[in-house]
Hints:
Blueprint (H helix, E strand, L loop, with lengths): L3 E4 L2 E4 L4 E7 L6 H17 L8 E6 L6 H11 L3 E6 L5 H13 L4 E4 L9 H11 L4 E8 L5 H16 L8 E8 H8 L8 H8 L3 E7 L12 H15 L2 H29 L8 H33 L6 E5 L2 H6 L3
Parallel strand pairs: 3-4, 3-6, 4-5, 7-9
Antiparallel strand pairs: 1-2, 5-10, 6-8, 7-8
Helix pairs in contact: 9-10
The structure holds uridine-5'-diphosphate and magnesium ion.
Amino acid sequence: MLLPIEDGDEAIVATPVLTIVVPCYNEEEVLPETVFQLSGVLDAFIQDNLISSASTMLLVDDGSKDATWELIERFHASNSYVTGLKLAKNAGHQSALLAGLMRAKSYSDCVVSIDADLQDDLAAIREFIVKFHEGYDVVYGVRQDRTADTFFKRATAQGFYKLMTSMGVNIHYNHADFRLMSRRTLDELEKFQEVNLFLRGMVPLLGFPSTKVFYDRKERFAGESKYPLKKMLAFAFDGITSFSVTPIRFVTSMGFVLFALSVVAGLYAIIGKIMGATVTGWTSLILSVWFIGGVQLLALGLIGEYIGKIYKEVKRRPLYVIEKEVIADQRELASVP
Ligand code: UDP
Ligand code: MG
């Protein structure tokens, strides 16, 4: 029986119900190992009285084309820690994660999100829970050693964080989506209603007590990255345009600078004409026309990008569709409002 301990105004649950949310897209190769290792983690925590025995993992199948869902069903039948959610089609990592978080929220005191590929160090989860017991609502897992990632991935990731920070977006350097969140954090997150999801930028906006836990990033256990360069760039671009209007401001200031330059050039041409020296050559003319044309197209494209975002937000389409789920009975009961 779980009894909340009254501590001032806050009710701290002695042994919280933890749900580990794992988005899975075509992960049949790693899933057996992931389930095995996460079950071990839950076992150990329950034994050490860190979490309630009602804790589980929630595997979210993000419309996989391989046997991921069949595996989840099979594990659910034999392993009481395993619950699953099947999305009707591929919604993308962020949406799949949100689907899991929002489902788990109704029956969990805290939720840990982690990728299926075992790149993040499971040992850090224990520290997450310890921090949660200390009263933190959000615990960010921060990679301190990324040597397992390719040089290219590290360099692009670093450039991305620097760019985001320089634009005034508050994200944690080297933190992806490996984190713990309390139930009230998830309740607040639900209010955001954003269609252009960038969770690692949204969570710091909440402002709840938070801390970091450092860990070493490992290689993918098996299978290939589901984030090829194209998807990664799109994600980075989405992150920037969803969180900052600095690029538009930059374009505006560039417009001013170009305008000022063209005034100077115009004056120069007029003075040259008066003084009797004609402005020679059409090369410079054509070049400047092309240059201005290029800048204008760039600016239009950027503005279009923001308008596209507004368009998506206005339509308010659901981010994911849940096709079916396998969740333990007591949790189904707990989630009834
Ligand atoms: N993922 C997902 N939907 C997608 C792409 C990826 O749910 O459309 C999941 C994937 O199964 C994994 C996590 O998101 O658990 C991170 O993906 P991955 O490890 O391939 O990315 P990387 O670590 O290479 O950035
Ligand atoms: Mg990975």
